[in-house]
Amino acid sequence: MEQTDKEKIASLERSLFYESQYKSAIISEAICHYEANLSKDFIENEIFYKSEQGTIVSTTKLLGMSAPCKFSDFIKNWINKAIDPDYASKYEIFSNTKDFLLKSYSEGKRDHIIEYWYTNEKGKEFFLNQRFLLTKNEDGDICALAVLNNTTHAKKIEAQQHRNELERHAYFDPITGGYNYIKFKKELISANVRGSIISIDIHAFKLINTTFGTGIGDKVIKAIWDRIEEVFDFPKGDFAAHINADNFIAFCPTEDQNEIITKIKSISYSLNLISAELSLPQVKLYYGISMWCPEKTIDLSYSEAVTAKNNAKKLQDADYAFFEKKDMDRLVWEENIIENFENALAQNEFHVWYQPKYNPENREIIGAEALVRWIKDGKIFVSPGEFIPLFENNGLIRSFDQYIFRKVCMQQKKWQSEGRKIIPVSVNLSRISLYYKDITSIYSHIAESAEIEKKYVPIEITETAAVKDKRFKEITDAFVSAGFILHMDDFGSGYSSLSALNSIRFSAWKLDKSLIDSIGNYSGERLLHHIILLAKELGIQVTAEGVETAEQNNFLSETGCESIQGYYYSKPVDISNFEKLMI
Ligand code: C2E
Ligand code: MG
Ligand code: MG
User: Fold this and answer.
1) Is the bond into 294 cis (omega within 30 degrees of 0)?
2) CA-closest residue to ligand 1 atom 13
3) Is the domain of 447 the same as that of 538?
4) Count of the separate structural domains present in the chain
5) pLDDT at 293 exceeding the cut of 60
């Protein structure tokens, strides 16, 4: 049949299209290409592929077929032979390639790419990119040019890049570009040599961040990191890492303290430059050093270095400290205390002692404070000032505070049922316990189960900067609404503003011993005078704490303080002695 001009042009265009595709297939090193007539479900020519050795192999033969053949049979065999069935089932295009491609063409799509892993007969894996280009031939049949590329190499590079990227995230710090703590530990373990671990942090870094912004904060971290990199000799076996916030760690394979001090001084020496460059007040670093050997965990050495660094912060004349035996003893002691806690509860080693509060005018007892004593083998084991902060650090405080509160409630109930005079006994509640969920209902439940009116067990909460906190206000309000009476402990020792204090519904302020110790000095006395006056105006009761002398007692009494607690009247005493005082 004679072709029309239009058909000739179409045929020419198609040839050109295929030619350009073949060329690009060859340039792109396609391993196989063939044409399929989708409308007739037919492949006319034998299909070859380029083997790994570069030889040309018959694909149809490999699949146990011979061309010409049906396109759908060819694909079916290819899927069975070459593609993981799980994988094939995920792709619509594999389920019925011919119909899928015809449908695509009718929807105006001309190009389909599928990528998949293929295992050859020798078990070698390839990553293939198979592209179907759709067009119509001069007879109006829809045809596909299939071009198969081996992209295994590119895929492997991509996978490697992906791995590198993951590694970068896992091991490198985004601010400094240097190691993070995980990588530091990995390197140190593989170095397997003894040496010194140095913990470094930036003095008042939070202040830099809040005053100048985190952008400047990050710049400070990077600038310090650059100094660390300059001073520590990485090629000679030193390592360093940025752990988090303003915390850095470094390792030197030496136990020579002078060598470490020289390095530390060299870093500190250049801090002026960082301050000048970033227009900041003087940047200061603290350092703590501990020894490390492969038999010891890095975390332990690091925590020792941090302990030493915290000690350095208390020094006047140095910005570094080495971890010493006494620090070790302290850590062991602290661990011992914590380990002993459960046992102490079980053995009833925590005793509540009572310190009375007196009315200075008539010297009558008007209340008391419950103060815990840890008694082991008949002796006070540790004072609460030492173990309470440890319990606060590891969460034990919550059950501890409840335990003491329950004990006091039950003791009050006992006194009441014995027909004794009952006075309010205030109980300390740690700020840490305050934030535990349902604290108000737990305390209410304890008091109610003991059948003791809440006014007889006021709660002492220490003055803190947290007084400004919304949450602090919510919790204290909840306590007041539940019927509790709140006393602000250690008034005058914290940083809270008077307006913030006034927003919390405290019924009493307990003036801190530091204020009482200023009696005898004019400005101290003026201050106390005004505080007591202000409290009276606000309808708040005042208790003076730590009153030791007659002079202090008389001054307070004359100034209008109605409640005094201190050694001047009585030290904290055990139950039987307290009962004697109450008679
Ligand atoms: P705090 O609540 O401010 O208790 C007052 C502390 O001052 C008590 O020390 C008391 O013995 C002491 N003190 C009283 N009068 C005088 C005095 O005239 N001179 C001197 N120098 N000291 C005086 P303590 O019993 O060692 O308790 C220390 C801190 O431990 C308490 O301070 C309180 O914050 C905490 N604490 C005690 N018991 C508990 C408790 O059951 N729970 C909680 N969370 N904390 C408690
Ligand atoms: Mg107290
Ligand atoms: Mg106090």
Assistant:
1) no
2) 546
3) yes
4) 3
5) yes
The model's pLDDT over 487-503, given as tens digits with 9 standing for 90+, comes to 999 998 766 667 667 77
Which pLDDT does position 25 carry in this prediction?
Answer: 53
Contacts of 403 (CB under 8 A, 6+ apart): 345, 350
Q: What residues make up the domain containing 51?
A: 5-157
Nearest CA to ligand 1 atom 45: 428
Ligand 1 atom with the smallest distance to the CA of 397 is 44
Question: Contact, 55 vs 32, CB < 8 A?
Answer: no
- Residues 210 and 355 placed together within one structural domain of the fold: no
Which of 498, 519, 518 is closest to 509 using CA atoms?
Answer: 498
Whether 135 and 50 map to the same domain: the answer is yes
In this structure, the residue with its CA closest to atom 43 of ligand 1 is 428
pLDDT in tens, 44-98: 877 777 777 767 777 888 888 887 899 999 988 888 877 776 766 777 777 788 9
- pLDDT tens digits, residue range 210-265? 888 889 999 999 999 999 999 999 889 999 999 999 999 999 999 999 999 999 99
Residues 314 and 359 in one domain: no
For residue 522, how far is its CA from the centre of ligand 1 (angstroms)?
A: 27
Q: Which two tokens stand for residue 291?
A: 């020894």
3-state helix, strand, coil in the chain (%, to 5): 50, 25, 30
Burial of 557 (0-12, 13-18, 19+ CB in 10 A): middle
User: Taking ligand 3, which is a single-atom ion, which protein residues have CB atoms under 5 Å away?
Assistant: 489-490, 545
pLDDT at 526 over 60: yes
Please report the pLDDT score of residue 317 as a whole number: 87
Distance of CA 559 from the midpoint of ligand 2 (Å):
22
* pTM for the model: 0.62
Closest ligand 1 atom to the C-alpha of 565? 15
Residue 331 covered by a domain: no
Q: Are residues 290 and 361 in the same domain?
A: no
Atom of ligand 1 nearest to the CA of 548: 18
β-partners of residue 322 are 289
CATH of the domain at 557: 3.20.20.450
Question: How many Å lie between the centroid of ligand 1 and the Cα of residue 371?
Answer: 6
Question: Which residues' Cβ are closer than 6 Å to ligand 1?
Answer: 355, 371-372, 383-385, 388, 401, 404, 428, 430, 460, 489-490, 545-548, 565-567, 572
Determine, yes or no, domain membership for 338.
Answer: no
